[in-house]
Structure prediction request, 450 residues.
Amino acid sequence: MMMRKVISLMTFLTCLTASALSLTEGWAGAWAQKKTLPNGLTLIVSERNELPTLHLQLLIRAGASADPENLRGLANMTAELLTQGTKKREAARISREIESVGGSLTSSAEADFSVLALTILKKDLTLGLEVLSDVLLNPTFPAEEIERKRAEIRARLQRMDEDPRQVARRAFFKRLFGNHPYAFPEEGTMETVQAVTREDIVRFYRSFYRPNNAILVMVGQVGLEEAEKAVLTHFKDWEQAPIDRSPLPPLPPLKGVQIEKIDRPITQANIVLGHLGIARSHPDFYALQVMNYILGGGGFASRLVDRIRDDLGLTYGIYSHFDAREHPGAFLIAVETQNRNANTAVRETLKEIRKIMDQGVTPAELAEAQAYLTGSFPLRMDSNGKMVRLLSTMEFYGLGLDYPERYPELIRKVTKEEVLRVARTYLHPENFLLVVVGDQKEVQFQDNWP
Prediction:
């Protein structure tokens, strides 16, 4: 069984690498250009003429991490309300104008930034930019739309409370990050969403929605010169201003094993365990990517799946993940198992963590991880939609426009010794948080872990 699995994996990696080489050659023949406009807006353009669609993404450096402590969810509510009415267009007209030409316009907030995303045919670019600039520069945040959005978000939060997986993750992040913004979902909480006023939304919008705090990426049938002319025409009234960012609270230290048990009448225990990780800018990010792929991030190729799922039959799925954000995020392992198997699943998971810390990885595991990570990377830019997202995050994290060319080498130069070093540095099986959601009478979860 294991031999067939290895052969199948190697065959897949060989095919993936061949595909990646083809896509990388395609990238080398394309290009992306960057220019800072007079109002401070960063414009990035990647001309791709294969398809008639244009993908635009406007990234604002104002995500949930910019929320005031008592107004969690403010960034998300502000972003989602941008398309719900302007001085010229009501919400229905905005949707109708974009959808009538087969386009889409969405707005949302993530942990570190907010995004306005537009997809439009090249022939309709002028219309698309007219609507995009209108929702960006002239939102009115109508009172009735605020109440409608408030009810929608509260319903979303209620659904999260009914999902054991979400309950486990939310409890994990809240306990791990304390009063830090990363402790909360982008939607906020029932209480803070209810507290947000129109004045709060307008204040947040005026504080952060500035061109010198934004990145506009365009991918498709457009060159830099044409894109710059169009953007200057439609965004000429967008004025820059100083950005005042409040410092984030320090992350609370995690000492020893902390356990949170949440009782739910369910047959499967949902378990999340982990601790603080690293920021995306950390130089060890790439070695950790390789290490995590082998430990639990590589799906069926990972040790956790091989041991907890295949050998012991304790779960259908288990994974590990380093959530590297602008500020240090979480390292977590998530698993679902029958209530009676919860202790065994955690015990065996901790054994795998200690094993990779004690013994490191084999040359074959290292080669497989590097082949997958380098081979799959070009798949992140095999469409205009994927490329616009990649370029946006590359610029946000300061990775440089040559990042797609550098990434394979950054992964390939990771050694077995580096994998062992980062495992011993960033994995903490003696200091971790463990959340278990399940029928606690069946789980009988132990309180002491070696």
Observations:
- The first strand starts at residue 33 and ends at 36.
- The chain has a mean pLDDT of 93.
